[in-house]
Amino acid sequence: MLLLKNGEVHTPFDVKKNCDILIDKGKIKKVGMDIEDNARVIDVSGKIVTPGLIDAHCHVGIYEEAIGEPGADGNEMTDPITPHLRAIDAINPLDLGFKDAYQAGITSLLTGPGSGNVIGGQNLVVKTAGSPIIDERVVLDPAGMKMALGENPKKVYSEQKKAPSTRMANAALLREALSKAKEYLEKKEKGNNEAPGYDAKSEALSMVLKKEIPIRGHSHRADDMATFIRIRDEFGVDLVIEHGTESHLIADFVAKKGVPIVVGPSLSARTKVELREISFKTSRILYEKGVLFAIMTDAPVIPINSLPLMVGYSIKEGLPWEEGLKAVTYNAAKICGVSNRIGSIKEGMDADVAVFDGDPFSLKGKCVYTIIDGKVVWKRKDKK
Q1: CATH number for the domain harbouring residue 141
Q2: How much is the pTM?
Q3: Residue 353 lies in a domain
Q4: Sign, CA torsion 159/262/299/209
Q5: Residue 182: Cβ within 10 Å count
Q6: Tens digits of per-residue pLDDT, 174-202?
Q7: Which of 130, 148, 180, 182 pairs as cysteine with 218 (C-beta 3.0–4.6 A)?
Q8: pLDDT tens, 11-21?
């Protein structure tokens, strides 16, 4: 057992001063003051204690760092429709990005395919440390179906002289795939002579149609977000918008439609036309309009250990501090479909905790302990 003593605990729904956290068998057993137990004690007096941070959209493990092309396994750009691909089959748990993550207090992340295809495949949520076998670090698999509208699939396939080369074709191929899967599912449910032969693509998309997993829709521009929402409504499925660069321009519409947004990476140059409205004000505007949102890095596009910095810049632009914390803890967990296990500090949750010396969202803040499933996976040792 492990006992964290006398921390300033941000649950993140409230703040508890001089608070203890008792951890047993990988779970949070008790949260309160003056807990007495024979557990190993870590004194966190004067430290800020939060749930382990969560990056709700990245490509860690599937786009490995420091090895180049051999580790680039995120885009199967030979077919624009590949829903049957599973990120878990490409993730290297020894990717350096995982180490960068847990040393920054990031204990879980959603990772998966890139945006080269209209439908890229299935993503998942994993812990950032633990077993060298990725299956043993899974929180939820699959956690969504990666889809993309906008410039990326257009560019990939126009260079191959095939569809899609326009936004119309992006949407048309997406509708066609969902319609085929709907027909496949209907025939399968009827059974007998109506049952179709096995179709891996339609089988995977059936999970979307049955609302077992959401579409996780890559879109920067407001019109692409509107297209995703239009298709969501046509097929009656669930949707999360990822990136949402221009979401602050249509925040009222997004709020009315009840679509969560995973914002970022906002620390980027305007390297393509879709990023012309990029701003750290986006999160604050979404919060003010009542939109459920999280903040992400898109690592390795932006280094994953920059996640706290992404929050800090958003706070600088008016986002309340506690809402910034929620954006990388509870909100992120809820959007990823795993808030029953991670994202908050309370009894029964996974014992994923980060301890900071100073404000975690400032340049001076330092992660001094990272705990995943009740085990200390990182302890900072400053040079004297």
Answers
A1: 3.20.20.140
A2: 0.96
A3: no
A4: negative
A5: 17
A6: 999 999 999 999 998 887 777 788 999 99
A7: 148
A8: 999 999 999 99
